[in-house]
Amino acid sequence: MELSSRVTKLLNIKYPIIQAGMAGSTTPELVATVSNSGGLGTIGAGYFSAERLEKEITYVQQLTDLPYSVNLFVPSDKLFIPEKVEHMNAWLKPYRRALNIDEPIVNISEKQQFEDTIDMVIEKGVPVVSFTFGIPNQSILTRLKERNIKVIGTATSVEEAIANESAGMDAIIAQGSEAGGHRGAFTETSSNLTPLIGTMSLVPQIVDQVNIPVVAAGGIMDGRGMVASMILGAEGIQMGTAFLTSEESGASQLYKNAIQHSKETDTVVTNVFTGKPARGIDNEFIHKMNEYNEDIPDYPIQNQLTSAIRKEAAREGNAQWTHLWSGQSPRLAQCSSASTLMERLVQQANQLLNQ
């Protein structure tokens, strides 16, 4: 079994390792280091304006001439409901008062921002674009493909994987429920929840139903996870939390420490921070918000309502009032450079494959 696969050929990379596009925590240094080490670094551009993305891409291009990726959030069609926002603002008032911050102005121009960032990735000749939270419309995918930009979709169920393949994606990230941060889900189960299928269960079921390459994601932190995924039929892996504690990551020291001092039972899937289900380390804000007995505003509205609270709490070193996204394998997190992590991964995988 080789470390080269359809994924390495498709993305023109040496090793089938993708660093996840962790919005808010990737840096040009992290992206370039992963790419320079033979993997695919990803700019987490989910919250970026086109201007911010242009700066980030320019910087990455100065640090590497190898392929890299940009990860974008597909806009939602959720409605802005003023009463929901009013009730949530009343609930969040004590936090804002304690942190001495103002109530934010909600901006719902998500679609325009998305279209501007698509224009930017085309203009800058980005080699690979991956999508989370859904599938962009066909005209966008056609424009990207006409420029020979590779497109990767995210799926948390077989149904979502089939939809991604039908739309013309070049590869699929099969995101298991162990994954840290936001669920890439865009469908709901019969009980109105996003799918929560574990990586080891999800990967072979998706592989059996689609013809395009599958990349395993969720809870993978080392060469063992990589080899296990590939034995199940994945042709590559995507890792987020493993890179989050690397030296080049944009995560704060508070955040890195929280991951390194957590255990596998400490994470929960919650929508209280952003309005979308995401896996993070349990804390006081989540507990308090679980007492809120009305509907939480949808993403991106809730994200905007809590954003300043989370940023200020993190700045003040208060881990109880900010989001701490993490996958289910925090005990395997290590603090090293991203290049050392890549080296270790490949070495471990090769050892296991050649036993």
From TrEMBL:
* Similarity field: Belongs to the nitronate monooxygenase family. NMO class I subfamily.
Keyword tags: Detoxification, Flavoprotein, FMN, Monooxygenase, Nucleotide-binding, Oxidoreductase
Catalysed reactions listed for this entry: 3 propionate 3-nitronate + 3 O2 + H2O = 3 3-oxopropanoate + 2 nitrate + nitrite + H2O2 + 3 H(+)
Does the UniProt entry include the keyword Flavoprotein?
yes
- Tell me which Pfam families the record gives: NMO (PF03060)
Does the keyword Flavoprotein belong to this entry?
yes
Functionally, this protein is described as follows: Nitronate monooxygenase that uses molecular oxygen to catalyze the oxidative denitrification of alkyl nitronates. Acts on propionate 3-nitronate (P3N), the presumed physiological substrate. Probably functions in the detoxification of P3N, a metabolic poison produced by plants and fungi as a defense mechanism.
Entry cofactors: FMN
BP terms from Gene Ontology: response to toxic substance
The organism's superkingdom is given as: Bacteria
| SUPFAM superfamilies assigned to the protein according to its UniProt record, in alphabetical order | Inosine monophosphate dehydrogenase (IMPDH) (SSF51412)
What is the protein name given in its UniProt record?
A: Probable nitronate monooxygenase
**One Gene Ontology MF term:** nucleotide binding
